[in-house]
């Protein structure tokens, strides 16, 4: 039988870090301008797909970049930063190509229906919103918000990956990488879905009134990730 | 946006308790049957995938019930969450449980699912009355799917073999997405006012058969499991399930008409 108390006592810091990573991911989803199916038809502001797909796309890119840097560097800050930057690049590319499609393909101006003036550029929004829609495209504020979301999500994912990789274990390096990756992915998905239920599937960014609900999702993610962190660290530490 | 159902509980068809029994008992029987019989002959590893199909049908039915209330976000989210919870729980269960691995994994998944279900209603305020039960079911189904497919790929659920053949090689990612798709896709593809339980569940069987074939292909590189029985039986189940599904679609459709091929350029002039 494995020494559960010993493993927990030895790796208590990493359990805390995994939990923190999960909370960061949960918070990050609130920044990402996700419009769901209506946005895919240019009838709502945001990127035209679901929260989970976006968070997973950006977050997993963050995990890959964090994993690549971890192979060549021991510095935790460098690993975590590269995870954040990887996710930022991924979400930025998604948003800029999406904007091209909305502007040149669909033929709609980026406009927010939640605010009359863009909080960053101070541009008028309401007169550009087509009738019967809830905005369309990605106005500057949503874009900036999305990049912040990508950064936080990537940070969260790479903190989880780094913590699991640093847990004291008897596993070989390649097995540890595989196990830590799949645990990080599992925890990532759980923490991407919880906030998407909190915001009801769509949000424009940090200027959206729904953004104020984030403490609820972060609290739920705290409890959920804490459980997953115990389970994950005991698994890796016990081998 | 209420991608999902009409805002009420899905009704009709087989009672959920029977499906819970099918998924739990079938899933565990598949995992243990595949594990023990594979010692006699690797050809029996396919039984694990049959267990996974039971778990997939159960998971699909649970998704159908909870997603009918309208989750606010798309149906796929709940399937991905099922496998997210399932993968954490199943790796833990197999690593610490030894011979009791699948049971430990199943119980762990159920606890994680229950807590997330309670959080969804109490903290996030989703207000779906069956959320706690459904999350528990979905997490359990996810864990049993992963274990069943792992058994089909390796012929055992002993963690060392699963770690070497399934996790370290990255095939766990295939299980994650294929299993997740199999659980989320049935309701996602069939939802709407004319949704019928038997048609949705038949899609689940069909998707489960595809994951069985995929598991069989992976088993070609494993020592403990034979690939041919999994692939062959998977294809047969897929064919039967798909034919039945087409029949059910024809039954539920108002009318099925062939539109012919697209007209050629000359015909358009």
TrEMBL record, chain A:
HAMAP family: MtrD. The keyword Metal-binding does not apply. The chain crosses the membrane at residues 12-32, 52-72, 79-103, 143-164, 176-197, 217-237. It holds the Pfam family MtrD. Pathway: One-carbon metabolism; methanogenesis from CO(2); methyl-coenzyme M from 5,10-methylene-5,6,7,8-tetrahydromethanopterin: step 2/2. GO terms for biological process: methanogenesis, from carbon dioxide; methylation; one-carbon metabolic process. The complex is composed of 8 subunits; MtrA, MtrB, MtrC, MtrD, MtrE, MtrF, MtrG and MtrH. Part of a complex that catalyzes the formation of methyl-coenzyme M and tetrahydromethanopterin from coenzyme M and methyl-tetrahydromethanopterin. This is an energy-conserving, sodium-ion translocating step. Its EC number is 7.2.1.4. Belongs to the MtrD family. NCBIfam families: mtrD. One of its GO terms (molecular function) is tetrahydromethanopterin S-methyltransferase activity. The gene is mtrD. This is Tetrahydromethanopterin S-methyltransferase subunit D. It is a multi-pass membrane protein. It catalyses: 5-methyl-5,6,7,8-tetrahydromethanopterin + coenzyme M + 2 Na(+)(in) = 5,6,7,8-tetrahydromethanopterin + methyl-coenzyme M + 2 Na(+)(out). The keyword Translocase applies. One of its GO terms (cellular component) is cytoplasm. It comes from Methanococcoides seepicolus. Keywords: Cell membrane, Membrane, Methanogenesis, Methyltransferase, One-carbon metabolism, Transferase, Translocase, Transmembrane, Transmembrane helix. It is found in: Cell membrane.
Automatic annotation (TrEMBL), chain B:
Its EC number is 7.2.1.4. It comes from the Archaea. The keyword Translocase applies. One of its GO terms (molecular function) is tetrahydromethanopterin S-methyltransferase activity. InterPro entries: THM_MeTrfase_su_C. Pathway: One-carbon metabolism; methanogenesis from CO(2); methyl-coenzyme M from 5,10-methylene-5,6,7,8-tetrahydromethanopterin: step 2/2. GO terms for biological process: methanogenesis, from carbon dioxide; methylation; one-carbon metabolic process. The keyword Transferase applies. The chain crosses the membrane at residues 43-63, 75-97, 103-124, 136-159, 165-187, 208-241. GO terms for cellular component: plasma membrane. It catalyses: 5-methyl-5,6,7,8-tetrahydromethanopterin + coenzyme M + 2 Na(+)(in) = 5,6,7,8-tetrahydromethanopterin + methyl-coenzyme M + 2 Na(+)(out). The complex is composed of 8 subunits; MtrA, MtrB, MtrC, MtrD, MtrE, MtrF, MtrG and MtrH. This is Tetrahydromethanopterin S-methyltransferase subunit C. It comes from Methanococcoides seepicolus. The gene is mtrC.
């Amino acid at each position: 039988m494995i020494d559960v108390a010993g493993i927990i006592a030895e790796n208590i810091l990493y359990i805390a870090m995994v939990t923190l990573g999960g909370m960061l991911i949960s918070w990050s989803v609130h920044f990402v301008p996700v419009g769901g199916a209506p946005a895919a038809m240019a009838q709502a502001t945001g990127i035209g797909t679901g929260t989970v797909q976006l968070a997973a796309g950006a977050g997993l890119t963050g995990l890959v970049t964090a994993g690549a840097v971890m192979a060549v560097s021991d510095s935790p800050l460098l690993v975590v930063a590269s995870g954040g930057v990887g996710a930022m690049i991924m979400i930025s590319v998604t948003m800029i190509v999406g904007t091209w499609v909305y502007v040149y393909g669909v033929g709609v101006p980026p406009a927010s229906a939640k605010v009359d003036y863009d909080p960053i550029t101070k541009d008028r929004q309401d007169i550009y919103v087509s009738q019967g829609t809830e905005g369309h495209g990605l106005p500057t504020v949503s874009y900036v918000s999305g990049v912040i979301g990508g950064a936080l999500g990537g940070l969260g994912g790479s903190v989880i990956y780094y913590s699991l990789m640093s847990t004291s274990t008897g596993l070989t390096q390649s097995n540890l990488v595989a196990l830590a990756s799949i645990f990080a992915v599992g925890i990532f998905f759980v923490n991407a879905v919880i906030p998407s239920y909190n915001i009801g599937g769509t949000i424009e960014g940090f200027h959206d009134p729904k953004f104020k609900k984030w403490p609820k999702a972060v609290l739920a993610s705290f409890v959920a990730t804490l459980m997953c962190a115990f389970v994950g660290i005991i698994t890796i530490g016990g081998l | 946006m209420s991608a999902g159902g009409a805002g009420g509980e899905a009704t009709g068809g087989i009672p959920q308790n029977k499906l819970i029994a099918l998924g739990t008992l079938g899933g565990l029987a598949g995992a243990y049957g595949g594990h023990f019989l594979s010692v006699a002959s690797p050809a029996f590893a396919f039984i694990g995938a049959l267990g996974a199909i039971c778990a997939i049908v159960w998971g699909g039915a649970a998704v159908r019930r909870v997603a009918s209330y309208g989750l606010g976000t798309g149906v796929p989210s709940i399937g991905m969450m099922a496998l997210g919870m399932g993968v954490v729980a199943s790796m833990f269960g197999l690593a610490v449980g030894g011979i009791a691995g699948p049971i430990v994994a199943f119980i762990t998944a159920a606890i994680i699912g229950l807590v997330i279900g309670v959080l969804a209603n109490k903290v996030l305020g989703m207000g779906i009355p069956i959320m706690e039960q459904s999350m528990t079911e979905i997490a359990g189904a996810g864990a049993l799917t992963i274990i069943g497919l792992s058994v089909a790929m390796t012929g055992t659920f002993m963690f060392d073999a699963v770690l070497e053949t399934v996790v370290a090689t990255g095939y766990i990612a295939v299980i994650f997405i294929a299993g997740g798709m199999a659980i989320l896709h049935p309701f996602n593809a069939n939802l709407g006012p004319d949704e019928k339980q038997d048609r949705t569940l038949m899609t689940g069987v069909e998707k489960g058969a595809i994951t069985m074939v995929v598991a069989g292909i992976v088993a070609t590189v494993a020592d403990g499991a034979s690939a041919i029985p999994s692939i062959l039986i998977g294809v047969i189940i897929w064919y039967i399930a798909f034919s039945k599904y087409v029949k059910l679609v024809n039954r539920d459709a108002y009318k099925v008409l062939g539109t012919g091929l697209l007209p050629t350029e000359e015909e358009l002039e």
